[in-house]
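Invent a record, attention on tokens:
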Amino acid sequence: MFENYKVFETDFAGRPLVVETGKIAQLANGSCLVRYGDTVVNVAVTASAKPRDGVDFFPLSVDFEEKLYAVGRIPGSFLKREGRPSDKAILTSRVIDRPIRPLFPKDMRNDVSVVCTVMSVDPDCSPEIAAMVGTSIALSISDIPWNGPISGVSVGLVDGEFVINPDAAQRERSRMAVTVASTDKLIAMIEAGAQEVTDEEMFNGIMAGHEANQKIIAFIKDIQAQIGKEKFAYPSNEPDEQMLQEIMDFAIDDIRQAMDTDDKTVRDARLKPIYEKVHERFDEVYPDSAAKIEECLYKTQKKVVRRWLLDEQKRVDGRGMDEMRPLAAEVGLLPRVHGSGLFTRGQTQVFTVATLGPVSDQQILDGIDDEEYKRYMHQYNFPSYSVGETKPSRGPGRREIGHGALAERALVPVIPPVEEFPYALRLVSEVVSSNGSTSQASICGSTLALMDAGVPIKKPVAGISCGLITEGERWMTMVDIQGVEDFFGDMDFKVAGTHDGITAIQMDLKIDGLTPAIIKEALAKTHKARDYIIDEVLLKAIPAPRAELSKYAPKMLSTVIPVDKIREVIGSGGKVIQKICAECEVKMDVEEDGHVFISGLDIDNCRRALTIVDTIVKDPEVGAIYKGRVTRIIDIGAFVEIAPGKEGLVHISRLDVKRTEKVTDVVNVDDEVIVKVLEIDDKGRLNLSRRDALIEVEGLVPENDISDQPPRRSGPRHDDRRRDRRDAPRGANGFVPNNNKPRQ
């Protein structure tokens, strides 16, 4: 039935990689089923028969589809089916897109679609890597024009050793998570998150990944040689040489003059009449070729910029190759938010706002990996006005999600652990003006906003980009590229980190790949630049995190209780925890591992709730002093609850430092009082004294006629009262001791 069914197998980082073709998705231009361990990904690639009309770009789409059946789960949505792709799926789609896109013909306008469907997940075998390899195989054996293959691996740094495609346990211990894609000669893509690794460690890790890719590339080439199809012909969108030369000769001097400015607005205004002039001159000469005329104008601008850089070492705005645009930073611009920072680099401006919340506000993730929650969230918005355009807002696209994730990855290593700073954190970067490197500006703005919010980050983080111009064997890098250099250049190499090391990398290319020398130089230049930004800009705006949180931020306290005490803190049907929250005006979350997080606008209320929790899980101590609530009054004294289910009798003789004739002369129901534990009998009943607590804490002097003898406990009347105490209702208002002083 399956005449073309083939199976290819190799070893990939110590685990079997099996590729099946000719059995599934046979109507696609190319397809394969990739099995990596128990991870299974189906990849299908298709191309339209004709080019898309009216586009000046190559229309490629890559979709990484997570299916929850792959991990044995039913979607949690109302419809019980997968909805929009998760952020993780979108980021993986981008990671696959970036190394394959430059290898398609630049003049092709046929739609190409890549769909990677994750059908089974082995936590030790990354479905992202399986999908990237599968994409390379499917394109290589298809009839779609493509100058591959590529391969991709993940590189970890575990106990000082580089590990290719680390398993789940190794990923937990790894100091870096770097995805490296390669051709047979060059490094095509880098995506990295790291815990302040050095430039040397990062470079060596990249090269280890590049070397590991070569075996898989040879494997794919063998598959292509056996079953690969002949590539189809397509109509080229490239303008002919005569048209290009005529338009270039006509417009290049005007374009050169128009582009010689550091102001994007001025440049765009100067170019507009030149475009109109060219169309007026050539639309009749080349009818029905408006798109190709636009392409000629693009190539003319590109030639001007690249010749300036390569031949004259001149940048569009007059800067030196390693010179950054003017920098500025401000904090505390918004009065009611928890933290804010504005970072400016030339005409690029990003406003980042930090919001703190209880840990329960963390994001719940519904994906196919083991990550269920995300405590630190970074979101990036790129409105059309930031580039002077008029477009309706349609929510974040893939680019916005990718840039937000990059900034998030850059800051995660310096965020204090939840045990030290029990908050969920959401940062939002609003791009208010864009002329290149907005993602890196959002990293700098995030450092400012976090420090302004009083988050005790371990170190400040800065981000910077490095560009590239190549021509044959010649190449040149430049720091802090602006929009026009990104648009006409060959690389956007983004690096974020502290003084001590790299925390994130993202590399975008328009060429086939990079040599090791280019990567090494880019790492060195970006390190020097981010050191300058940290010292001369960020730390001058705010030298350290603020000592106190904003008065508008919730106050948080945390503790860890024994797991077997969780039930007592929550209570039947949640009665105890609800009562604590209501009485203390706080929000409280109890985790399965015993972590308790308490949040509220008043720190004293948070402390009060915390002491109640501590009192619930700890046994009262003789001699300790507590603050409690009067729950009931009888003739011989008052019952005081020091914690839910833990109350005792304060005898009338122990209510005050002076003689008490009537209990209600001193206390009433619901009064808060301090008491000292005098005795815990063999049945766990508490004998309390307000008198002793007042003497010890407030230094009051008792009257001489007060008896120091404990109250008698005999006679039927007292026994009835003791029964009343045993049957007394249990409430939720108690405090734990602290060096024999009550905690408020």
Summary: Residues 570 and 577 are 5 Å apart (CA to CA).
